[in-house]
Amino acid sequence: MKKKFVSIILVLALLQVGFTNMVSAYTQSDVNATKNKVNQATKQQNAIKAEKETILNEIADLDDKISEYESELEELNTKIKKLEGQIATKGKEIEKLKEEFEEMQQLLTDRLVAIYEEGQVNFLDVLLSAESIWDYISMPTRIQELTEADNNQMEKVEKQRVEVEKAQKQLEEQNVELKDAKKTAEMKQKQLVIVKADKQNKAANLTAEQKKLQSQIKKYNDEIKKMEEEIAKAAQNSGGYVGNFNGTLSWPISSTSRNYNYITSYFGNRDVPVAGATANHGAIDIGVYSGTPIYACGDGYVMVSSYNGARGVYVMIKHADNLYTLYQHLNSSSVKVGQTVKRGQPIAYSGNTGISSGPHLHLEVRTSPYYGSEVDPLKYMHW
């Protein structure tokens, strides 16, 4: 009986071990299968996310191109309007010069005829030998043959003729420049139409979530456009600034400040850090903490000190040699429009306003006040 009981116990133990092994094997298999499903789902999710980001980034790039073309067109149209005004003024100026020239020429002709009729000077052969009155004027003998008053009159006529020719030459050059500007504007307008159509096609294929995000991005872009219009208006009102510039800009943050030279985003293409930010970064981002003092990179004139939904609090300074610096995402500004500043003068405090993924200073250097003229700030400063 005892042996039989032991046998039963052994059989049950073996069955339990087998069952346990079977359960363990099944559980591990199930876990592996689940992991595979999770991995597949993650890959699919990442693929969807990548595709989503790619489309939105493409649209963001197209938005940048649109803004660039619109800015260039605005600049070209301003140039065309200015040239047309100059050409109209120059035309009137030439007409007036011609009238004065004809009057002087008539007075001189009458004087020469009177002198000849009175027989005061015998220079009929000289006059007949000259192909025109201008040939005669240029002859050395006329100094001896005419009075000083007559010579002065002829010099005035000659000077007036040169002025007319100079004005006509300038008019021709302005007409050529105007023609080129109109041709360039026409080409930019065609490019703008193509890019806008491309953007519209891409936007039409966005999901509901993407469209919501794109709507937010459009709102930010409208804010940026509004800011650029403010800058363009300020540029027209700023007048000519004459200051000192030795070709090098100073660093906008003191070396005593934390992260003073920690660049979080360089000039050029980048991954978009936050919805609405541009993929083509026309600046450098310096990762300083909010409240860090910001200093002017050079002597200049404060064109703008304002707030914008995309740029946040921002300051733009006009320097000599058609150079501009733009400081944005500031916490506050300590300068006013129209104020002149010196290199190294405190102008603001860094912050996290506008479209920003965190506290930092966004520093732009432009070769004109208009969008699209941004250059790498590091080329102008020792870092």
Give the % helix: 55-70%
Overall pLDDT metric: 75
Strand residue percentage: 5-15%
Count every beta strand, where a strand is a DSSP E run of 2 or more residues: 12
Rg over CA atoms, rounded to whole Å, is 39 Å
Termini separation: 94 Å
State the shape. Answer: elongated
Structural class assignment: alpha+beta
The main sheet comes to: 10 strands, antiparallel
Number of helices: 6
Pick out the low-confidence regions. Answer: 1-26, 41-49
> Element order, helices and strands?
HHHHHHEEEEEEEEEEEE
Question: How would you characterize this protein structure?
Answer:
The chain is an alpha+beta fold and 383 residues long. Strand 6 (300-308) and strand 7 form a beta hairpin. The strands form 2 sheets. Strands 1, 4, 5, 6, 7, 8, 9, 10, 11 and 12 form a 10-stranded antiparallel beta sheet that branches. A two-stranded antiparallel ribbon has the order 2-3. It has helices at residues 2-118, 124-129, 133-137, 141-145, 148-204, 208-238; strands at residues 263-265, 268-269, 280-281, 284-286, 293-295, 300-308, 312-319, 323-333, 340-341, 346-350, 361-366, 374-375. It starts with a helix and ends in an 8-residue tail after the last strand. It is elongated and about 95 Å long. It is built from 6 helices and 12 strands.
